[in-house]
Amino acid sequence: MGIQGTGGLSLVVEAIEARNQPGLPKSGTPPALQARMQRGLPEKRPIRDVRKVIAVSSAKGGVGKSTIAVNLALAFARRGMRSGILDTDIFGPSIPTLLNLSGEPRLSSNNRLIPLTNYGLKSMSMGYLVGDSAPVVWRGLMVMKALQQLLHDVEWGGLDVLVLDLPPGTGDTQLTLTQQVVIDADVLEGAIVVSTPQDIALKDAVKGINMFRKTSTPILGMIQNMSTFICPHCETETPIFGTSGVERECAAHEIELLGDIPLHRSICDDADRGMPTVIAEPESERAKIFSRMAERIGNMIDL
Prior knowledge:
The chain is 37% helix and 19% strand. By secondary structure, it is an alpha/beta fold. A hairpin with a 6-residue loop joins strand 7 and strand 8. The chain is globular, with a radius of gyration of 19 Å. The N and C termini lie far apart (42 Å).
């Protein structure tokens, strides 16, 4: 079955349907796996050629999670690691814009999607398979099948670390990733939760923390974004979203505060023009914050 007018999207759908679909047992399937499929749970398979996987989550939209995820992935790459980022937001992918990339991925000789690369970072996103303004109008089952394809049918070519940019919320996508990737030979090292200091964002961040704990996913820590506004003219700092909100939740939930990122116009401008801060301003204090976080996280997961 193809989808008219969506180019590479039909490739994804056809490739999914050409193989045994997750959730449908086949002849000779081991009993334990067959029972798991019949219960509708995702099939547990490792992500090929990837040593470590880190999930970046926020539960709340609009807190800068994708910008942080791509800067962290680039910071890993600048430290000499083979780094990649997977955009798991099927409905609102951001990675193509953040990396200034477009176009349909080619297929490898193994019939797998070849990641698009910029700034030394490999990436895959549903945004490469649909147009910029084309909506993905799918129900949950189709979304899960597409996610399976992005997880398991990409030719990463050997990565030290893969950053998963999770969509907002605590629904199907997050559960699929935590139930499937976490258990796969402990490939998923843990999750990072991003929030602003504002209470309305923190309430959802706490839901994300509780979701990860319920699925036995290790939490590496939290990142406080937009902690203070820095005036581009006088460099005065103003805590427009409040102060120390993330620090308070870290203490309450006994998790680490990995970093504190200011609200600075350059970070926004860099993201909008597809040249993240770690690349655009590598010597700035803002880029150094990302670099220090990447170093700290790398030490935590033995990278």
